[in-house]
TrEMBL record:
<keyword id="KW-0805">Transcription regulation</keyword>
<keyword id="KW-0804">Transcription</keyword>
<keyword id="KW-0862">Zinc</keyword>
<keyword id="KW-0238">DNA-binding</keyword>
<dbReference type="Pfam" id="PF01475">
    <property type="entry name" value="FUR"/>
</dbReference>
<keyword id="KW-0678">Repressor</keyword>
<protein>
    <submittedName>
        <fullName>Ferric uptake regulation protein</fullName>
    </submittedName>
</protein>
<dbReference type="InterPro" id="IPR043135">
    <property type="entry name" value="Fur_C"/>
</dbReference>
<dbReference type="InterPro" id="IPR002481">
    <property type="entry name" value="FUR"/>
</dbReference>
<dbReference type="InterPro" id="IPR036390">
    <property type="entry name" value="WH_DNA-bd_sf"/>
</dbReference>
<comment type="similarity">
    <text>Belongs to the Fur family.</text>
</comment>
<dbReference type="InterPro" id="IPR036388">
    <property type="entry name" value="WH-like_DNA-bd_sf"/>
</dbReference>
């Protein structure tokens, strides 16, 4: 976490921004659990900081490339960017919102790298979103 916090501080200072308690608190909450709904993030950071500070910090972090905001239906999940987090994929249940971490897939990563090379895209990154119904919800529906 110390290296990640130093990287965060470096990014903020490059943009002439202060390292504040709300920024550290939001970052620490995301570092502990890399993928959160905004409501979960608010609950994880209060009463330490207020709700408005969480929203403003997430908005700032998104502009600076520190986090990605991933739309999931009408909700949004927040995750640290690849700078702080090992890249991973996940699937989301459309019914209950459960997030399932998917194992690393070397075939998919090679395919993406190949497509990027074909179109002369340097330093590619991507977001893979798989949506469906999780096993629990599918079994509940059958009952």
């Amino acid at each position: 976490m110390n290296d990640a916090l130093q990287t965060l501080e470096s990014i903020l200072r490059q943009h002439q921004l202060h390292v504040t308690k709300p920024r550290r608190t939001v970052f620490a909450a995301l570092y502990d659990q890399p993928l959160r709904y905004i409501g979960e993030l608010i609950r994880a950071t209060t009463p330490s900081i207020d709700r408005v500070s969480v929203y403003r910090t997430v908005e700032l972090f998104e502009r600076l490339g520190i986090v990605r905001v991933i739309p999931v239906g009408w909700k949004h999940k927040i995750e640290l960017s690849d700078t702080f987090n090992k890249h991973h994929h996940h699937a989301t249940c459309r019914q209950c919102g459960r997030v399932i971490d998917l194992p690393e897939n070397h075939t998919l990563e090679r395919l993406i790298a190949s497509i990027a090379a074909e179109y002369h895209i340097h330093n590619p990154s991507h977001v893979l979103e798989i949506q469906g119904i999780c096993t629990h919800c599918a079994q509940t529906k059958k009952s």
